[in-house]
Amino acid sequence: MNERKTNRIGIAVVEHQRQFLIGVRDASSTLAGYHEFPGGKCEPGEASDICAARECREETGLDVQPLKELLYIEHAYEHADVLLHFWLCAPIQPAPDRDAQNLQGFCWIPASELSGLKFPEANAPLIDLLIDTYVGS
């Protein structure tokens, strides 16, 4: 019997002035073309908040401070089972400049625009939470 792989994923939900750091998965990756928050697989023994901050720095060049875990979601995709740890993070000073900063393909998207983006299925509860929290409040 072929046992499915389970991946623990630390995800940095980086918020600054009601905007979130969002990228698009490249053509060579799983779920290519979908929008994503910075994040990736946790190393063995690595806490998910440390992973989220590390992955954000590696993927965007931006240092962040994990503040609190927003959601924990277990999800089964065709390619793997994932344990998703979504961490609300804040940029470490200086505050990011939306236009001047090179974030390696990631950019700042207003919370009001999140519902129009194509995220992986497992992100749906997070997107709903962010819209409820940051849009019109």
What's the topology here?
Elements (H helix, E strand, L loop, with lengths): L5 E11 L2 E6 L10 E2 L2 E3 L6 H13 L3 E13 L4 E11 L15 E4 L13 H11 L3
Parallel strand pairs: 1-6
Antiparallel strand pairs: 1-2, 1-4, 2-3, 2-7, 5-6
Can you describe what's shown?
Its EC number is 3.6.1.55. It catalyses: 8-oxo-GTP + H2O = 8-oxo-GMP + diphosphate + H(+); 8-oxo-dGTP + H2O = 8-oxo-dGMP + diphosphate + H(+). Belongs to the Nudix hydrolase family. This is 8-oxo-dGTP diphosphatase. This protein is of the alpha+beta class and 137 residues long. It has one domain: Nucleoside Triphosphate Pyrophosphohydrolase (Alpha-Beta Complex), CATH 3.90.79.10. Strands 1, 2, 3, 4, 5, 6 and 7 form a 7-stranded mixed β-sheet that branches. It is globular and about 45 Å long. The model has no long low-confidence stretch (mean pLDDT 90).
What is the residue-averaged pLDDT?
A: 90
CATH-defined architecture: Alpha-Beta Complex
Helix content: 10-25%
| Global shape | globular
Termini separation: 50 Å
Task: Summarize this structure briefly.
InterPro entries: MutT-like, MutY_C, NUDIX_hydrolase-like_dom_sf, NUDIX_hydrolase_dom. GO terms for molecular function: 8-oxo-7,8-dihydrodeoxyguanosine triphosphate pyrophosphatase activity; 8-oxo-7,8-dihydroguanosine triphosphate pyrophosphatase activity; 8-oxo-dGDP phosphatase activity; 8-oxo-GDP phosphatase activity; metal ion binding. This protein has 137 residues and is α+β, with helices and mostly antiparallel strands.
